[in-house]
Amino acid sequence: MRLIPLALLILLVASACSDNLPRSTLNPVGENAETIDNLFRLTLAIAAVFFVGVNAAVLYVAIRYRARKGDDREPKQIHGNDTLEITWTVIPALILAAIAVPTVQTVFELAEEPADALQVEVIGHQWWWEYRYPELGVVTANEMWIPTDQPVFLSMTTDDEDVIHSFWIPNLNGKRDVVPGRVNTLTISAPEPGVYLGQCAEFCGLSHARMRMTVHAAEPADFDAWVTDQLAPGNVDEDSEGWGLFLDKGCSACHAIGGTEAAGGGLNPGPDLTHVGSRTTFAGGSYQLTTENLKAWLRNPSELKAMEPDANRGMPNLGLTEDEIDTLVAFLQDLK
Amino acid sequence: MATLTPEATELEEPEEHGAEGGGLWSWITTVDHKRIGLMYGGTAMLFFLIGGIEALFIRLQLAVPDATVLTEAQYNQLFTMHGTTMVFLVIMPLAAAFGNYLLPLMIGARDVAFPRMNAMSFWVFLFGGIFLSSSFFLGGFPDGGWFGYAPLSTQSEMIRMDFWALGLLILGIASLAGAINFTTTIFTMRAPGMSMFKMPVFVWMQLVVAFLLLFSLPVITVALFEVLFDRNFGTLFFDPAAGGDPILYQHLFWLFGHPEVYILILPSMGIVSEVLPVFSRKPLFGYQFVVFAGAAIALLGFGVWSHHMFTSGLGPVAESAFSLTTMFIAVPTGIKIFNWIGTTWGGKISLKTPMLFSLGFIAMFTIGGLSGVTHAVVPADTQQTDTYYVVAHFHYVLFGGAMFGIFAGIYYWWPKISGRYLSEPLGKWHFWLMLIGFNLTFAPQHWLGLQGMARRTAVYPPDIGLETLNMVSTIGAFTIAVSMLPFLYAMLVNSRTGAPAPADAWDGRTLEWSISSPPPHHNFHDVPTVEAIDDFWHQKYGEDDEGRAVRVKTFPEPSRYTDKYIHLPSPSYYPIMLAGGLVLMAYGFIFAPLGIPLFVIGALILFGGAFGWAQEDPDHPMGDHDDHHAEPDDGSEPDETAEEAAGDEVEDPTAALADGVVADGGDDA
Questions:
Q1: pTM
Q2: What is the ipTM of this complex?
């Protein structure tokens, strides 16, 4: 029983602290996340009362009623008490009813689509995220940009041959599964500019752990500038060595570059690379987009991130020479 | 694999377990519920060690960010098998072990209703467990998570998910047969006078669990067959491109999976409902309420499955409905907790190891129950599900709850089983180390989940504040491992050298304490007549004017031997034959087309076993089966001529009834 104070302490810390850790559910941003957080704290507070009550009773009993030497009297044989039974049936039921009311209200509130929302289509792939902005014509991967002055309505699905994923940016809302053959929706909003981290939350096979994502919330002007940049064709010099390698090595079988002959994307979808140089991360959001990391990636992608290229899940090792790698990395980084 | 030697651990002292004689063959052919219970328990404990080692590897990998102890592929296999092992090969069979050993003893019967089917349950479980685990050597452990969500489970080309689906189907046969057996035993073989509401709560909970199994196993059977068919025969149950639906799989799985949670926890609730009164020297507070709450939990347990799917996109109406049912199930759960505390309140409490584990159960299970209520709040659950918060939650329920209850039961009934007490100091070391280790491991995981740590991730990044608590959690896991050492030592050594335990080892309340420790092979010399709940206690104790217990009678130490002729079912090798054939068929299926001959051989063995079984006269065994009776003796070796004479004596046509029903125990049948 001596451990109970410790467990108690941990729970109290958990309930009382408001932290600033980047992926914390207790650090909500935006209306929906805040609503959820408030409801959770209410429930946790009520649960804490029962936790303290039950564990205090167990401790009390173990100390107070412990058999003592020399006390030969047997205890009174009490078989039950109907009043008590009714009490501890009805009171918890009422308390739960009190939690149920705001719960149901919130469930319906969160399901509503806001009127003026920016539409984003989210497509889960093993093991990266694709985002399409149907009203704006933007296509990008892993890093979603949203404006701070507008809620964002996500319509989420996968390709038919893919598996279930779950889109989760803890700061911005609860998670929502991304299911083949269905379109699930989720509303997020971020009134504060910033970078919010996420992680695929439904086990989706080999590299589930490295299926991460970020949401960049930007002031409206910055967001508009980002959109303008994204709509520009890829910065490709069609006579360059890099572009030649990109075509020769079969990159365009999976990766699209807008405004070029590789604009359509290939048979097997990989992240759109039109503006890959403007992103901060790659490989399912699990590596910083630096020259060194990109080189390591091209040397052997599976070294950085477990994949199954033979089953069309992830990038194969292209067997590039160091020179080819240098050229391709420079080419990719120029795709701003 | 260690799974190959469970019999060996049990065999070290065969003479301790009834007049059945020793030797491997006697264990292979046994139909004695006590031996089957022990084999269930021994096997499940070995799987507990295997599942525990898997957990230690998982925690090693997660001790630091971006660790490389395991590859992603290995990690995914280990967490899948850790979950599958602990649920299907540890907690379920441990509950079956207790049920097997204790049900007949607690209801005053000489065996279960279908002793040979009971043996078949065990062998199917053992071989099924070996089959599932053998995937490790045949291409790798399954890697789709313990609930095998489609279409991920149908996507992989590798056979490992076939091992998973077929393995669970095989284990389901064992559980289903066990459930039928237990239900029939409880309904038909109770001692005269033991009406349903005079049964021990442990028996009640086993009955409720048996019904849960009967109704939920068919559902997962459908789901698993559909996965197998999708994988092997090109059906498209879960393929959206062809109109299939991945969400259908989730409904099927959790319509089994949530009752399964109660299948795992209710036996332990039964155990602590027996332990708390004995060590408080008071009757269970509100017996009827505890029983009804258990039944209510089971019934409601079939109406809450979609709370595992609150993020699947069910829509607000369904989410609200399942939220309400899930909250409501907290009410009967609370009733149980309050009644347990009421039982100890005002008692005379002896903090022996079984009691410590029972009190630990209440405290830890309460934490799991309360975090469960936070899951019922759908919006909060959308943040918590599939994170370490939910991992913490179900470990508080299944480890802090189910396993603590099981350890309470082991320490409580081991004196009955072995005739010797387990060491109290070692037991206390075990309890306190395990309680500390358990809380160090899992309490921080609540916090990790709320900090955004998703479950089933082989690596996590270093810069988001998850390092410290993951390290604490890993230290806790190894503390749990250390806590198992005094337990294992006590089991291996105290069972032979511990203080001898009398029949009534704890001044108990239920019938099993009225017979010798260890029990006679035939359990009861005379089938008892029952007048009250806790009948044995009421024979020993009355109440004075103040309502305090007063000793009115002391029983002499009962003998293990009887001077009467008692018919017991004969041993049979057909159950193990049938089980072996079944698993050979499974291997044959996996390795088809090469495995087709193996499949055919397995099928022949299975049908041979079933046919021989059906032909086998329970009273005139074929071949080298020994006729099997508890002899009218005084502890001397069985006398061959006397045995044969006894065998000839019984020409009662009723004895030839179906599955070797225990003749003398069947008064109530």
A1: 0.91
A2: 0.94
